Each structure stands twice: as C-alpha cells, then as structure tokens.
Amino acid sequence: MAKYNTLLYYCYSTIADAEQFAADHLKFCKSLGLTGRIIVAEEGLNGTVSGPAEACKTYMNTLHADPRFAAIDFKIDEVDTPSFVKMHVRYKSEIVHSGLRDPNVINPQQQTGKHLEPKDFMAMKDDEDVVILDVRSNYEHSLGKFKNAVTLDIDNFRDFPDKINELAKYKDKKILTYCTGGIKCEKASALLLHEGFTDVYQLHGGIIKYGKEAGGEDFEGKCYVFDNRLSVDVNSVNPKVISTCLNCGKVTPKMINCANPECNEHFTQCDECGTAMDGCCSDACQTHPRKRMYDGTGYYVKVPQPIGVSLKKQELRNENQEVVE
Q: Where do the Rhodanese domain residues begin and end (predicted)?
C-alpha cells in the first residue's frame, strides 16, 4: 500500500455559507495532516489534496458521507512524498474561474455535455464526425494534448467564452471536450449547449482518469497538474514529447514556473537553459530584484494560509489565479 496519496476532485453541489464552510474545511484538512489547495464556492468544491494514505482515506470517506458530496469521483495517485508543502482552502465566487456566474444561463447541476467514460471517449475520438476540443489554457496544451485536438489561444479558462465564435464551424459535429480532471468541461460543455451546439460530450474524469483507465492512448506529451509535480505522465501506450524549450527550442517535457514571482509564467524549459537562465523565462526576469532561488524544480512554495483569515479578502487577491483543476 502506498504511503502517500494525492487526490484530485471536484463537485458541483450547492454549499450554503460557503465562506464559513471554507474556514471549517481548512481546520479539518489540517487536523488530518493533509496539504493541498482547495477552492470553495456556493456552487461546490474543487481540490487537490495530498498526505498519508490513511488520512486521504478518512478525507474521502468524510466527504462521501455528506449528501452534498456523495458523488465525488476522486482521482487517486500514489506518490512517494506529499505533492504540496502547505494547506490552503480559498473561498471564491466560482470553483473554476470562468466569468459565467449566472446559474440561470450556465448551471452544471442542471445541464452539461454527455459524460463519456475513458473507454467510450477512446472509441469515439477518431470518428470523422467528431471534433476533440481542449478547453485548457495555452501553457497546459502546449505541454500535452490529444492527437488532432482543437486548441484555443487562451491564457486562462475565463477567456473561453470569448472563443465560442471560433468554434461555430463545428456546430454540425460531435464535440468531445476534455480537460485535466473534468471540471472545466462541465461549464465549457454547458456553454456550448447554450450557444446552440447540439451534440456535446465531455471526458469524464478528464485526462487523468483517461490515463489510468485507457492507458492514455494518443495523448501526446505530459499533463500539467496544479501541485509541486507540475506535470505527470499519462500515455503508457504510444507516448511522445511535443513541448519545446521556450528559450532554445529544444524538445523537452519539463514545465516550470518563472523564478521571478512578479511574472510566475508557466513555461517549458530544458535543464541547460534552466541552469543558464536561473529558471527564468527572459533576461528581464533573470535580473529582477525579487528573483527566487532556482533549485532545478521550478516549483515555489506559497505563503501558508493562517486559520481564521478573511477568506473574502483572499478571494479578491486571488480572483485571477487558477489554483487547481
């Protein structure tokens, strides 16, 4: 049995007094010795947590015992060490920032694309009348994506609604959406249906579940994840590397965050350029006075969240940050 687990999950389910729930949930997670990042909103939960296997089991059992979260599909990775250093639980207006806040228009609890299990997604993805749509951000699909997938030029998921018109030419096709764990597809597929697309699907459990249950076939590259691993392997059938170093163009699967905290750009960089650039994306960042020490990983620990801090203030500070998938 693995000593440590990392759990990826989300759940669209109404939470009354979500800010208080977030504060209480932070205490609960810390009591179990877990680390991770969780977003709480009135519309549900979105989290990645990591810790001892028994603590993770207790966490899953506790959430499943709550009727609001009984349907959570946890994606479980066995890891050698916890995937985070600190525990954060943030209250926000959405569990994935899309700007689509009117539940009368987009409500994943009422309407989304049809959920496809990995084996069914694999069986459909190469059909002539199918379009595979990646709804993730540029830095994610530049690291890895499904073969022949349509990608969008977006820096954050909140930019997705503005790209709908670019997809109009596919309205007579079956649209198969996918993302890391499934959460973005819930709103993306709902929006596509709202905009008149009639045959919309989503990969249930996302890339992570597809890798576990379908071997990751035809997913090219690696999958970006929102913890200190930064990326994980998905394809055990026909893997290939598609990402290149931002600085020299050499093929590399390594994803890092820029060492300049005022930039913090997600980008791929080979080890040679990482050493030469001190983990920075540009000369300007390399000479920035706040540049962090580069240790070869490109992951930097966030300031811990004290229990009892005003979560609404944190929401305002972090509104534009996509914390977890």
A: 126-219
Q: Which residues are catalytic?
A: 179
Separation in Å, CA 165 to CA 100, 179, 191: 16, 20, 12
Report the DSSP beta bridge partners of residue 11. 45
pLDDT in tens, 120-159: 999 999 999 999 999 999 999 999 999 999 999 999 999 9
Q: Is 46 helix (H, G, I), strand (E, B) or coil?
A: strand
Percent of the chain with pLDDT over 70: 92
Domain of 8, CATH number, reads 3.30.70.100
Query: Phi first, then psi: what are they for 197, rounded to 5°?
Result: -75, 135
Cβ 48 vs Cβ 322: under 8 Å: no
In a shared domain, residues 85 and 26? yes
CB 135 within 8 A of CB 185: yes
Number of H helices, E strands in the chain: 9, 15
Give the Cα separation of 272 and 279 in Å (integer): 10
Write out pLDDT tens, residues 36-66. 999 999 999 999 999 999 999 999 999 999 9
Domain contains 298: no
**Residue 111 CA: distances (Å) to CA of 94, 114, 162, 193, 202:** 17, 9, 20, 8, 12
